[in-house]
Amino acid sequence: MTPKTAEPGVHQAKVTSKGQVTIPKAVRDRLNLQEGSILNFIEEGETVILQPQRRARRSFHEAIGTLDPEGMTADEYVSSLRHGPGDREALQSGGGGPKRVVRISDLLMGREQL
């Protein structure tokens, strides 16, 4: 059980022999911490700040902004990520019927959606 303090927003936890502490449930809930969450320990003199590490999310445009989209379809780009050069030739020679082709440049311009 976590000891309570009189000060609002101040929580206590006891350090185990292995150097572990249990983060109080109120703090876990407020910060949406779950099993596997990563915390940064920021030292400022005698004070240590625990800060949840948040993943930076990039937009679709930022993620593919380094590509040269001219002439490459989205299917061709994804295929190039999944398969080696020899695999691509075998895949392109197969049947499969008509497919909708979406060019990356059209996605970037907002003219097409996947």
From TrEMBL:
It comes from the Bacteria. Residues 10-55 form the SpoVT-AbrB domain. NCBIfam families: lp_hng_hel_AbrB (TIGR01439). Gene3D superfamilies: 2.10.260.10. Residues 78-98 are annotated as: Disordered. Signal peptide: none annotated. This is SpoVT-AbrB domain-containing protein. GO terms for molecular function: DNA binding. Coiled coil: none annotated. Keywords: DNA-binding.
